[in-house]
Amino acid sequence: MPHFSYQGKRVYYREKGSGEVLIILTGNTASSAVHDGEIDYFCK
Asked: What average pLDDT does range 5-15 have in this prediction?
């Protein structure tokens, strides 16, 4: 999974779909999987 470093921490991200950029941030310890439904919806 692609990632970048920010303040000494790895930040993982996913790219999906096309068009305008939408950034969805999870909670402090939450998995991005909790947003799978929203990601699928907005990719349509």
From this structure: 93
